[in-house]
Write a structure and sequence with these properties.
Blueprint lengths: L1 H17 L4 E4 L13 E5 L11 H23 L5 E6 L2 E6 L18 H17 L8 E5 L2 H6 L1 E3 L10 H4 L7 H7 L5 E4 L5 E8 L14 H12 L3 E5 L6 E5 L2 E6 L4 E3 L1
The structure holds adenosine-5'-triphosphate (ATP).
Cofactor: Mn(2+)
Family: Belongs to the adenylate cyclase family. DacZ subfamily.
Keywords: ATP-binding, Manganese, Nucleotide-binding, Nucleotidyltransferase, Transferase
């Protein structure tokens, strides 16, 4: 198995160099000893071996779905917007243009609502929270990004705001050192309000926007409804982490514009 995988990875490396790919996205077991010229992103936590007895059609279907899910995360984590990657599966090599994942989700579209760096940071942080949880248990939360005073009009403080009175430097979500405290406060009831530049205004905030005419996929509850609702009444982006299921969703203008699986994990 190891030798077969290495043959595939070497072939992927050659192909990647031919098409000038940004990276190889590998769905094979991580191999720390192989040295390739192209950077490799290892995707963990899926089980492609379950495909062994499937038909060619099922295999292609599986590979294309997984590459889209992986590329959506790859773009969030690397901030790459265009270029080619080569995906390696146990039975297939695939050349994929990362712009093709834009149909799924394209963060660049929302640069008028918030700073793109801030959006990238909040999404990366949301993915981490969804994957890691806290002290062994899953946590759910939401981040609402927009004009703070406007967002405050549609929400109220549920618990004391832990960010009150702190300097911007410790409230900046673009600074990774600040993520630890966000993860801590994500365990509180309520959501985070973040300004357009990525400065956290409040957490523990309860959303009051009326969700009655918001259409949501069935199974989603109060947190998702309230997040969708505030993005309908205010120019804002809502990013939810679901406690039940670990999915990260992005809401704009009252609808879910992206649904990101977090059982696929990338080590970039
Ligand atoms: N309007 C709201 N504003 C802020 N937080 C809310 C609001 N409604 C619910 N929540 C929070 O979401 C938590 C989960 O509620 P619920 O299960 O109804 O939501 P959900 O959308 O199904 O989310 P999850 O998938 O994370 O369970 C509640 O315990 C509460 O902390």
């Amino acid at each position: 198995m190891k030798e077969k995988n290495r043959t595939l990875l070497r072939a992927a490396d050659e192909l990647a160099r031919t098409v000038d790919a940004l990276a190889i996205i590998s769905f094979l077991n991580k191999d720390n000893e192989i040295h390739l010229e192209t950077p490799v992103v290892w995707v963990r936590d899926i089980q492609p071996e379950i495909l062994r007895d499937h038909t060619m059609v099922a295999l292609v279907d599986y590979c294309s779905n997984h590459i889209i899910d992986a590329v959506v995360q790859y773009k969030i984590l690397t901030k790459m917007q265009s270029g080619t990657v080569v995906a390696v599966f146990p039975y297939a090599l695939l050349i994929y243009d990362i712009e093709d994942a834009n149909d799924q989700f394209n963060i660049e579209q929302y640069g008028d609502i918030a700073d793109l760096d801030a959006l990238h940071s909040v999404l990366s942080l949301a993915l981490e929270i969804a994957r890691e949880g806290r002290e062994g248990r899953a946590i759910g939360t939401a981040f609402i990004i927009g004009e703070i005073e406007e967002l405050k009009r549609w929400s109220h403080q549920g618990v004391l705001n832990p960010y009150e009175g702190h300097p911007e430097s410790v409230r900046d979500v673009r600074v990774k050192e600040n993520w630890e405290s966000v993860k801590e406060f994500a365990q509180l009831d309520g959501v985070f309000l973040i300004d357009k530049d990525g400065i956290i205004g409040a957490s523990g905030r309860y959303l009051d926007a009326d969700g009655r005419d918001v259409q949501l996929q069935s199974g989603l509850g109060g947190r998702h409804l309230a997040t969708a609702a505030i993005t309908k009444v205010a120019p804002a982006i809502g990013i939810t982490v679901s406690e039940s299921g670990g999915v990260v969703r992005v809401f704009v203008a009252g609808t879910a514009v992206a649904q990101i699986r977090t059982d696929i994990r990338l080590s970039v």
